[in-house]
# Entry
Amino acid sequence: MKTKTLACLMIAGMALGGCPLDAKYSVGGTVVGLAGSGLVLEDNAGDSYSVTGNGAFTFSTGVKNNDAYSVTVSTQPSNPTQTCTVRNGTGTIDKAEITNVIVVCTQPGQFAYVANQLSNDISAYVIDSSTGELTPVAGSPFTSSGTTPAALTVDPNKAYLYVANNSSATLSSYSIDSSSGALTATSLSVATGNEPDAVAMDPAGRYLFVANFGDNTVSVYSVGTDAALTAVTGSPFAVEVGPSSLQVDPFGNYLYVTNFSSADISVLAIDATTGTLTSVAGSPFAAGTDPVSITIDPTGAFAYVANEGGASISEYSVNSSTGALTAVSGSPLSTTSDPLALAADPEGRFLYAANVTANNSFSSYSITPTSGVLAVASTVASGGTLPVSLAVDPSGLYLYSANQNSNTVSVFAIDTANGSLTAAPGSPIAAENQPRAIAID
# Structure
């Protein structure tokens, strides 16, 4: 809703009059993950907007140029109870509509999905919200529509699961039954680059990214109706050598890529309109030996990289304006064993690392809020062999791990006071052959 048109701007610039000088610009964005009812947003504590579903929203009252806007949650949804968080919600109008506010709604995870690369299938589990325990979904495992499923992600609205298939160089999609967690393969499989090894989605669910380890590129797809994927102009985009993991910052502005073989991190700006990627100034940024996993804390202030070959975790502060990374004091942090996977809790207080080689353990680290420096909190046995992928439940109460060499999934309860871990009842639970990745719905 642009009330100040280009023609009006031209006339006003020629001082011919006839145009209102107090014209206003609209403020809006996208709601994702909403399952409950009653969500109410406010702009500048005055203009209310009742949200009835996922998708685009725009406040009815515009904001003058040079005036501030501030989008907040006035009423959280219920039935089910959810927590909705606003991102990109504050700023000052600069002669343009605001369309990039993101409202992300979460609740405790309902289902867990595991990609089993050698049995070419996907295990699905129901999550017990009171204990974190996993129970296989009826019909699980579900046959993969590609070969060697190696990575997966759930879309922000929890309607679709996307799976990168390493050997067939394809990206598959599955619809998720919201009641049972069962998967149904769609017919929308698309080609990727060579050896796709990681997959990620922007927080608004607009674009899907795939790291192609075999040809040093990242494929980008726009996400359409019913999970339809279309390669964006210019895709795939070149990165450095051996891209192995991906992370989008919480605001959807930058994509971070760990490059295993060149020991660095590519940082790429995401064009919100087209999805195209552009390297930021200073990219790539140095990492340790064999960087294999990256995570960004939920505030977007800090990034952490697991250096498998270097037995260390690199710690960075993130420049929110440019996406650039700066190593924090004391980085990299030496670890007791080669870290292979990382995950942060939803509040950004703790970081978890899966340690491989002989240890097969999980380490908990507290995150210093002001600097991002990590401090070891505790270490426990993982309960499985070769933990290769970690996921934290959106509630922050449980940590899950896919254990590749023991064909199991571990479940640990998280102590929210100190970040320590305790094995949940029934952990570990059986998966299929070589579970490689895990995602929580």
Notes: The longest strand covers residues 98-106. The chain has two domains: 6-106, 111-440. The helical segments are 6-13.
